[in-house]
Amino acid sequence: MARVKGVAILGLVKYIKKYSKEKGKSLDDIIKLMTPEDQKIFSQKILPSEWYPYSTYINLGNIIDRVFGKGDHSLSRELGKISAQTDLKGIYRVFLTFFTPQQIVKKISNIWGSYYDRGKVEIIEFNPGKLIWRLSDFPEIGKFHCKNIEGWNEAFLELTGYKEAKARETKCQTEGSPFCEFVLTWKE
């Protein structure tokens, strides 16, 4: 079973708290929509550096997308951007502080491993203005997460100093591919 660091779950919780009044749904309301196993996890404090079931992260993301969004995963992409902006200015700011944008992009597998205990990241192409990377060995991945990765990648590139960042998934394990493939483009 795949696991995720609490920091990823807390990013989603932060979104719920920020928009709960506007949407008329509190964190408690959202937790009530989760499975009993997930509810048990939320009965204790979520710690940023602890490991939690990946399924809890996916379930929470899907519920947020359904309750706060349209249920079509378009909100998932925005959640990814918010998570990157929060994480890379907080717990993972070391990546932005000590490395150049080129070094950071080359460390994408290290960044992945700091969030998830499963999945193999491989850089397929890295040229000025373009990066193609693949994620394999992660059969549990959900569509919510794929769209979330697109948004996270765009914000990540912008925070490292690149302009006009775009990210899109071109192949997806949820659609039968043996891997998820992401194409990132930007202007230097």
Please provide a written account of the structure.
The chain is α+β, with helices and mostly antiparallel strands. The protein folds into 2 domains: 3-79, no CATH class; 84-187, Trafficking protein particle complex subunit 3 (Muramoyl-pentapeptide Carboxypeptidase, domain 2, 2-Layer Sandwich), CATH 3.30.1380.20. 50% of the residues lie in helices and 20% in strands. The protein contains 9 helices and 6 strands. The protein has helices spanning 6-23, 27-32, 36-42, 54-68, 74-87, 94-98, 101-106, 108-113, 143-159, and strands at 3-5, 51-53, 120-127, 130-136, 163-171, 180-187. It has a 4-stranded antiparallel β-sheet. A hairpin with an 8-residue loop joins strand 5 (163-171) and strand 6 (180-187). Helix 1 crosses helix 5 (74-87).
Number of helices: 9
Question: How many β-strand stretches?
Answer: 6
The SSE string, one letter per element, is EHHHEHHHHHEEHEE
| Biggest sheet architecture | 4 strands, antiparallel
Span of the ends, CA to CA: 39 Å
Helix content: 40-55%
Question: What average pLDDT do the residues reach?
Answer: 90
CATH level 1 name of the largest domain: Alpha Beta
CATH architecture of the largest domain: 2-Layer Sandwich
CATH superfamily of the largest domain: Trafficking protein particle complex subunit 3
Radius of gyration: 16 Å
Briefly note the CATH topology name of the largest domain: Muramoyl-pentapeptide Carboxypeptidase, domain 2
Class based on secondary structure composition and strand pairing: alpha+beta
The low-confidence parts are none
